[in-house]
Every structure is written in C-alpha cells, then in structure tokens.
Sequence to fold (317 residues):
Amino acid sequence: MGAASAAEPSSEPAAAAASGGSPEAATAVASPGGGAGTHTDEEPPGNRPKKPMLAAAAIVGAVLISVPFLVAGQDDDRKPEKDQTQNAAGTVLDAQRPPAPETYTSESPKPSVKPSKKETVKPSVPPAPKPVVVPPSPSPSTSKPVKPKKKAATGPPPGTAAAALAGLAKSDPQGRHICYRAFVSGQGWQSAVCDGTMTGTSGQGKKITALNIAVWNVEGSSANALRHEGGSSSAKWAPSWTAVIGDGKNNYIGSSKPGAPFLTGFAMNVGKGNVCHTAKMQNGGWGQQFCKNGRPEYMFVGTTDNNNWFEAVKLTV
Fold:
C-alpha cells in the first residue's frame, strides 16, 4: 500500500503535462534531485526541454499510470474463480476457456404415469395334466352276469370209444378194459360199448364200413382192415397197419365216408395180456370166441371171401 500512496500525488503533474500544462512543471517532476523544481538564473526561461527529457518524462508517466491497474489486477486474483469468470466474459481468454460444467442435482425418480410398453415375461407354468375320466361301474341291478369262458376240451370227443373208456378207467384204474363202436352203412356211428357188448346189427344184413376202438391198461393197440374189393374174388387189406395207439386214445380202421367199401374182416393186437373176439357173419350165426396174446401175435375177425362180411362183433381184453 505504501507504493500506492507514493504514486497517488504524482498523478496530478503527469496529468497536467498530458493536458498541455507548463513544461516547467513536467521538468520539475522528472528532476532526479527530488526537490522542488525552480528555474536557475543560468538557463533562459523561454527555452524548451530537450527531447531526451521529454521521452524520459513520458516513460515515467506511463509507468505511473499503469501501477494502479497492476495493483487492481493483483486484487482480482484474490477474488473467487466465479468473479473472475464473470469479469473475463467477452475477452479473448474467455473464448479459449472450456465451458463450465453443468450443475447436476440428485433427484428421486418419479413414477411414470403411462404403463410401460415392454412385454411382461410371465413365468412358464407346465400344463395341468388332463383329468382321467373313470367310467362309472355298472350297478349290480343293471349289469349282466359275465359268463365264464369255456375251457378248451382236453379229453376225447364225446360219443367216441375213448370217451366211453374214460369212465371205466376212472372207476377201475387197475383193470383191463376195451371199448368200441361200429359205423353201419345206412345208419352211421353207433353208440360206444365196452367189454364184450355187441356192436353192429344181427339178422339185418347191414354192412360195417369202419370201427373205432380204445383200450386201457394193455399198452395200446394196433389194427388193420380187410376191405371188399370190387371185381375181385377176394378182399384186400389196407396198405398198412395203424401205428400203436396208446391206452385211453381212439384208434380208427376203415372209412365212414359215403361209398366206402365194407369190411369183410379186421385184425388187431395189444401190447400185453390178450385180446378175444366173437363175431356174427352175414350167412350164419355167432362163431366161437378166439383169443390171442400180446404182440407180435394178433387176432382176426371175419372172412377173406370178397362177397361175405361180418354183421356184429364182441371184444374183450
């Protein structure tokens, strides 16, 4: 501040010199002696100052004028940045400065009035299982009774010799039995009979074309048929014997087909024990009983005459 106080009194002479005051006053200010400026008797009063003197006075005056501005500039540096920015507006330095950052304030977000257009992702839910429809059970009053299925027959066909033998074998499993039936021409199959009962006809002249035989407890049976041969004087045997048919099963010889040749006789055997027969021929009565042991023996019933036949037979084992 002392520099400022010393400078303030000096401004008035400088101003006077600038406004066209007397040259003496300007010379007195520039005097290095620092005392009051007075003219000497040796210098003429009408002489003007020299050019070097004037130049020095102008430099001193410019320095004195710029001192207050320099002091004012130092005072501005002490002020806040905000004031400097306002004072520097419109200057060249203001254009080079970066723009002041905007002021941001924290503010809680306001709820939107309009609903969001974004689709809401719903959680995937597995489809519910379809209900199982259980039909109502029928009431006992309206439901029909279910008939049990018939089991497939495992025994021999009804009416056959084996079917008749099954009853005997059940009642007497250790006994020896034989059952049989004849197919009579013009009549068909007769009912099966057993153990010495007659099958066929007597006194009617009817012919037998087939026989069905079943045995029990004799290790099976085998048989062969002697058939009428048209245009020949003697009957003819079937090509082969039947296989040995086990106990309780049906064995067949001859044929039950229409037009089948009639039997003039037959032969048969058993596995053990013996087999016996009594037969009635067409032109005669009942013959004697004949028996044969087990295989390889066999018994024969009838005749080899192609023009004769047996009408009935009885068998035992």
Notes: The chain has a mean pLDDT of 75. The CA atoms of residues 82 and 88 lie 10 Å apart. The radius of gyration is 80 Å.
